[in-house]
Structure prediction request, 418 residues.
Amino acid sequence: MDFLLSDPTFSMACKQFDRVAQFLDLPEKTQKIIKWPQRSLSVTFPVKMDDGKIKMFSGYRVQHHLALGPTKGGIRFDPDVTLGEISALAMWMSWKCALVGLPFGGAKGGVCCNPMEMSKKELEGLTRRYTQELIPFIGPQKDIPAPDIGTNEQIMAWMMDTYSMQVGYPVPGVVTGKPVTIGGSLGRREATGRGVAFLVKKAIEFLKISGPLRIIVQGFGNVGSVCAYQLVKEGAILVGVSDLTGALYNPKGIDYLRLVAYKEKTGRLSGFSGADEMDGVELLCQHCDVLIPAAKERVITEGIAEKLRCRILAEGANGPTTPEADSILEQRDDIFIIPDILCNSGGVIVSYFEWVQDMQSYFWSEAEVFNALCRILSGALNSVMQFSHQKKVSTRIAALSLGIKKVAEAKEMRGIFP
Prediction:
């Protein structure tokens, strides 16, 4: 397993774990058992492309632990997918599920590809072939995939259909994030972004920040755009936004609806007339009340942490802040952090609701979904704040401690099978 440590994202997750394990004074044997992924699958498979040629793709699925129940985690289609990155994301998902009280262990999967350069037919072929490789390892009582970067409701529908065809009957509970017409949950697509916005509003109340909220969003995909919409419709001012196509800044505010219409028409942010274009790294350091990194890992580095001018750092992405940056932020009492395993947990919480609905064949209204989501998020935030205050540690250490401690206790109670 040591080869995983060469991956910077997995190394980062391990540093976080090691620090918290030391803080909790976990026995060495417990640390070894809950730190490393329990199962890791690497696959290579062919896909027939539109030009008739056969192209080989590499994919992964990692199940971090099964102490609390079946594993749960997204599927990522991205050119930068590695086994180390997937293992780190599975580990974070373990602590996240435990923190918010879900009966799941963490998992993650991915295929190294660029979905933006593939046709719908090619994506379907890739999805079905990858799912076929996973069939012995997934299932509603084993491991339940969901959407992540580069995947969506359609990908989940193909995965469900492929699995169902293999077993001979419909199994909607094998994945979450599906279209509502085939067993998906109302509100699942917006869940992560709405969860981030809800926790930002809770933090605003706690910090007693008044006046129109000025926000910057890095990553204008599903999470970032939904979060921005939720905050803007309640009076916040979007002063900066970025994605892979460019970064925009306007201290007077960016028209959210115009921006969305422009991106839907052009497929990019760059060239939008309602704001100035800016370097993406520079945008992170502009003055705002709330900075929301909602893209990928390791974007808040040591150098950026020193220059941040936000009051709240709401981590919509997984692992956006490096341990070196954390060391700096812990010395700054002017920035309140909503850590990733809490901040972006809305997606997996509503995925849990979808799984429950599928297993019972009884579906909830959108109001029921979001009322339950807010109740769980509020309880988890209160637990993190209380732990942070009592133990005099950062909110990140508090959140990780609560999640890791629960998994450690479950492993201790279950023991080691001979």
In short: The first strand starts at residue 39 and ends at 48. The chain has a mean pLDDT of 96. The domain at 191-343 is CATH 3.40.50.720 (Rossmann fold). Residues 366-391 form the longest helix (26 residues).
